[in-house]
C-alpha cells in the first residue's frame, strides 16, 4: 500500500459543508445560500462567480459571521483549520475576525472610517489583537503599507480616506486586512469599480501576498476574466447554489453547466467584434417563487420535463471526478452559434468615412476652481486675506474630438483623466472654459437660445448609475414621457402610447410603466434611462460607464440593445468606459485620454493591434483575459498625478518607462502616424504623415 502524500494529511484552511443562510422577510423566507459546500487548501485561490443575487456575497458574509437580521445562518458547518465557526462564542469569533480571517469589501469606505486618519484606524486594528505600544503598532502599520507597495507610507498614514484615490483606498483596505498575516481572506468584488491599471496593481499585490505568505483567498466576482487570471479553482453560483465547481481550466475550457456556458458566451471577447453578443435569456428567478425543479430550467435552452419537475443533484464529471456539476444534461454546454453583424466591418468603416461630423469639439478646455467674487467685494476680501487664490483643476486641456452619424467612438482612460467631463461637454451639460463646440456644422455659442435647446436635444446622456439618475418618486411613465411632452414631441392624449413605444424600443414590457424605479433590477433601470434618452429623438447618446456596474449577462443585453439602436435608428455614440474589452467589441474608433489630454486616437482594430503611445500599450497589456491562466500582473507604477498641478511637458512622463529628457519640458503634439491614427508622443516626432 502506497504512502499517503504529506499534503493530503494537512487540515484545509476552510471547509464549508451544506451552508444554509435564510432571510426572514414579511413576504416570506428567502433561501439566499442553499446548501453550499467547498474546501479550500492553504495558499489556494477560489473564484466564486455568478450574477447579482446568486448568493456569492452572502456566502462570504456567512463564513465571516457578518450576516445581520433578518438574515441568519440556519444550517451547515464552517470549519476554519478544523474549528467549527458557526458554534463559537462571540468573544472567540471576534478573536479570529480581522486576525486569522479577514475580509476586503467592494467599497473600501465600508472598511475605512471617513472621520479618522489612516494611522488611527490601523493602530486600533493592531492593538485590538496584540498587546503592543502605540509606537510599535504605528511601525507595524507603516511596514504593512510599504509591504503592500504603497508609496510614501508615512504620508498615507497621516491622510484621511477622502484624501486618497479610489485605488489607494482599496490598497489601504487590503493592508488593514493583512495587518495580522491572516490565513484566510475573503475579497468581495474588490476591483469592480477600478480602472484596468489600478485593478492590475491590486491583483499584483494580492498575487504576491498569496505566493509569499500562503494565505488562502476567496475572490468573489462577476468578472470571469479576472478570476481566470487569479484563481486555482472556480465555483459558479446560481440562485443560492453552486452549480459547477472545478479547476479554472476545467470550468472555463470544458464548461458542463448551460449557465456557465452562457456566462462565458456573454463575454465580448467570446464574440466577433461588432457582432451581437450571445446572451442568457430571461432573469434570475425570485427566491420567493423558486421553480420546483432546476432553478435554471426557465432560462435553459436544453431543459426538458425532468428539469422542471425534480431538483438536480451535484455529480462529478466521468473523466475528471474533481469537476462537479449540478445538471441533468451536463454535456449540453456547447457554444452558441455566432450572431452575424448587421453590416460587415469593412463596409461600415467606409460608410462612416463619408459622414459629416454630427458633433465637433475644437481645442476644448474645462477648468474648475473657486474664483474670488468680482469687483469691490473681491478686492476687499483679498486685501484682508480672506479670499485665497483660486485652486484650479485642469479637467480637460485642449481636446479635439468629432463623432459622425452612426459612429461609435470609445473614450478611455483612468479615473481623473477628464473623460466624463468631456462627455458632459458634448452633451451640453457643461459649457467649456475654452474652445468651441460645433453641432450639425454650427458653433453652439453662436446659436439662439431656442436653437441651443434643439442642439442639446440631439445629444442625450445615459449615466453609470441608473438609479441615481431616475427620480425615485416618479413612475416610469412620467420619467420617460415628461421631456417628450414638454418639447412637443407628443401631446397629453398620445403620451401613454408614446411612452409604451419608447419602452418597447428599449426592450422593456410597456405594462411595467406604472411602476417606480426601485421595483426594477439594475439592468431594467438602465433600460429605463435609455428609453428616457430616446424619448426626445436624439441623434447621439453619450454613455458614461453605462454598463460598468452590470453583470456580464445583463451587460450583454444592454450592449446588444445599443447595437440594435445604432443599426435601426442610425444613432451615434460617445461611449465612455474603463472596460477595454467592451470598447474593443462595440466601438469603431477609440480615443485615449490621460490627465485632460488626448494621447492617442485610432480605429479600434488599429489601436488594439498596434498601439503606439506608451500609456495605451500599458493599458492594453493589463487587460485580464478569460484565456489567461495565473497571469502575472505588472501594472503602470505610480499614481496618476493631480489635475490641480499636472506635470510639465508630457503629462505621462513621470510614469513612462521610455521617457526622454525633452518629455519633461516639451508638450508633445497630437500628430498622424498612419491613416486615421494619431498619437501625442515624442517617440514619433519623425514618423508623422
Task: Name some characteristics of this structure.
8-stranded mixed sheet; 2 domains; ATP binding; P-loop_NTPase; Rossmann fold; alpha/beta; disordered N terminus; ATP-binding; 689 residues
Question: What are the low-pLDDT stretches, counting only 5+ consecutive residues below 50?
Answer: 1-8
Overall average residue pLDDT = 86
Radius of gyration over all CA atoms, rounded: 27 Å
Largest sheet: 8 strands, mixed
Strand fraction: 15-25%
Count of discrete domains: 2
CATH class of the largest domain: Alpha Beta
What does this protein structure show overall?
The protein folds into 2 domains: about 10-100 and about 180-330, Rossmann fold, CATH 3.40.50.300; about 345-600, Rossmann fold (3-Layer(aba) Sandwich). Residues about 1-10 have low confidence and may be disordered. The protein contains 24 helices and 24 strands. The protein is globular, with a radius of gyration of 27 Å. It is an alpha/beta fold. The strands form 4 sheets. Strands 6-7-8-3-9-10-12-11 form an 8-stranded mixed sheet, with helices on both faces. The protein is about 30% helix and about 20% strand. The N and C termini lie far apart (about 75 Å). Helix 4 (about 120-125) packs across helix 5 (about 135-145) and helix 18 (about 475-485) crosses helix 19 (about 495-505). Strand 21 (about 590-595) and strand 22 form a beta hairpin. The longest helix has 18 residues, at about 195-215. This is Peptide/nickel transport system ATP-binding protein. Belongs to the ABC transporter superfamily. Keywords: ATP-binding, Cell membrane, Membrane, Nucleotide-binding, Transport. Its main location: membrane. It comes from Variovorax ginsengisoli.
Amino acid at each position: 500500500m502506497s504512502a499517503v502524500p504529506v499534503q493530503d494529511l494537512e487540515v484545509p484552511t476552510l471547509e464549508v459543508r451544506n451552508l444554509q443562510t435564510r432571510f426572514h422577510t414579511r413576504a416570506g423566507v428567502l433561501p439566499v445560500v442553499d446548501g453550499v459546500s467547498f474546501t479550500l487548501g492553504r495558499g489556494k485561490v477560489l473564484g466564486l462567480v455568478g450574477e447579482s443575487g446568486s448568493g456569492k456575497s452572502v456566502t462570504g458574509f456567512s463564513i465571516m459571521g457578518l450576516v445581520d437580521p433578518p438574515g441568519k445562518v440556519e444550517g451547515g458547518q464552517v470549519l476554519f483549520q478544523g474549528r467549527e465557526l458557526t458554534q463559537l462564542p462571540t468573544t472567540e469569533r471576534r478573536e479570529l475576525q480581522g486576525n486569522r480571517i479577514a475580509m476586503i469589501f467592494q467599497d473600501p469606505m465600508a472598511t475605512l472610517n471617513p472621520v479618522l486618519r489612516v494611522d488611527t484606524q490601523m493602530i486600533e486594528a493592531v492593538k485590538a489583537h496584540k498587546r503592543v505600544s502605540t509606537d510599535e503598532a504605528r511601525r507595524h502599520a507603516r511596514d504593512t503599507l510599504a509591504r503592500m507597495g504603497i508609496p510614501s507610507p508615512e504620508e498615507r498614514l497621516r491622510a484621511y480616506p477622502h484624501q486618497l484615490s479610489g485605488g489607494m483606498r482599496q490598497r489601504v483596505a487590503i493592508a488593514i486586512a493583512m495587518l495580522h498575516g491572516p490565513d484566510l481572506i475573503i475579497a468581495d468584488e474588490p476591483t469592480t469599480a477600478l480602472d484596468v491599471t489600478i485593478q492590475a496593481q491590486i491583483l499584483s499585490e494580492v498575487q504576491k501576498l498569496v505566493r509569499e505568505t500562503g494565505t488562502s483567498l476567496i475572490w468573489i466576482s462577476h468578472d470571469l476574466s479576472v478570476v481566470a487570471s487569479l484563481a486555482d479553482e472556480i465555483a459558479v453560483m446560481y440562485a443560492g447554489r453552486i452549480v459547477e465547481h472545478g479547476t479554472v481550466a476545467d470550468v472555463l475550457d470544458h464548461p458542463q453547466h448551460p449557465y456557465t456556458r452562457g456566462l462565458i458566451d456573454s463575454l465580448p471577447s467570446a464574440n466577433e467584434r461588432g457582432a451581437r453578443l450571445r446572451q442568457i435569456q430571461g432573469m434570475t428567478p425570485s427566491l420567493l417563487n423558486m421553480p420546483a425543479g432546476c432553478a435554471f430550467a426557465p432560462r435553459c435552452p436544453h431543459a426538458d420535463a425532468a428539469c422542471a419537475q425534480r431538483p438536480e443533484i451535484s455529480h462529478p464529471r466521468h473523466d475528471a471526478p474533481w469537476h462537479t456539476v449540478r445538471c441533468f444534461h451536463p454535456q449540453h454546454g456547447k457554444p452558441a452559434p455566432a450572431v452575424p453583424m448587421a453590416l460587415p466591418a469593412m463596409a461600415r468603416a467606409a460608410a462612416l468615412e463619408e459622414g459629416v461630423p454630427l458633433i465637433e469639439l475644437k481645442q476644448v478646455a474645462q477648468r474648475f476652481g473657486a474664483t474670488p467674487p468680482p469687483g469691490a467685494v473681491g478686492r476687499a476680501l483679498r486685501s484682508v486675506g480672506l479670499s485665497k487664490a483660486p485652486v484650479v483643476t485642469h479637467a480637460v486641456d485642449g481636446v479635439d474630438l468629432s463623432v459622425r452619424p452612426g459612429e461609435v467612438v470609445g473614450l478611455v482612460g483612468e479615473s481623473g483623466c477628464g473623460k466624463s467631463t468631456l462627455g458632459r461637454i458634448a452633451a451640453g451639460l457643461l459649457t467649456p472654459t475654452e474652445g468651441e463646440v460645433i453641432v450639425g456644422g454650427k458653433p453652439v455659442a453662436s446659436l439662439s437660445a431656442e436653437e441651443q435647446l434643439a442642439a442639446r436635444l440631439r445629444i442625450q446622456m445615459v449615466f453609470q448609475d441608473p438609479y441615481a439618475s431616475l427620480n425615485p418618486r416618479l413612475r416610469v411613465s412620467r420619467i420617460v414621457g415628461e421631456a417628450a411632452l414638454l418639447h412637443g414631441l407628443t401631446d397629453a392624449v398620445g403620451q401613454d402610447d408614446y411612452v409604451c413605444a419608447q419602452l418597447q424600443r428599449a426592450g422593456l414590457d410597456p405594462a411595467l410603466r406604472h411602476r417606480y424605479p426601485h421595483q426594477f433590477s439594475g439592468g431594467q433601470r438602465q433600460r429605463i434611462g435609455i428609453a428616457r434618452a430616446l424619448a426626445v429623438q436624439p441623434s447621439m447618446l453619450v454613455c458614461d460607464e453605462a454598463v460598468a456596474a452590470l453583470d456580464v449577462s445583463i451587460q450583454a443585453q444592454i450592449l446588444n440593445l445599443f447595437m440594435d439602436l445604432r443599426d435601426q435608428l442610425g444613432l451615434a455614440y460617445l461611449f465612455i468606459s474603463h472596460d477595454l474589452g467592451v470598447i474593443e467589441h462595440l466601438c469603431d474608433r477609440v480615443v485615449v485620454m490621460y490627465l485632460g489630454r488626448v494621447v492617442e486616437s485610432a480605429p479600434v482594430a488599429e489601436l488594439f493591434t498596434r498601439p503606439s503611445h506608451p500609456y495605451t500599450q500599458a493599458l492594453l497589456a493589463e487587460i485580464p483575459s478569460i484565456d489567461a491562466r495565473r497571469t502575472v500582473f505588472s501594472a503602470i507604477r505610480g499614481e496618476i498625478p493631480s489635475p490641480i498641478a499636472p506635470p510639465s511637458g508630457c503629462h505621462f512622463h513621470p510614469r513612462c518607462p521610455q521617457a526622454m529628457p525633452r518629455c519633461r519640458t516639451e508638450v508633445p503634439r497630437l500628430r498622424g502616424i498612419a491613416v486615421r491614427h494619431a498619437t501625442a508622443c515624442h517617440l514619433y516626432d519623425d514618423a508623422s504623415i
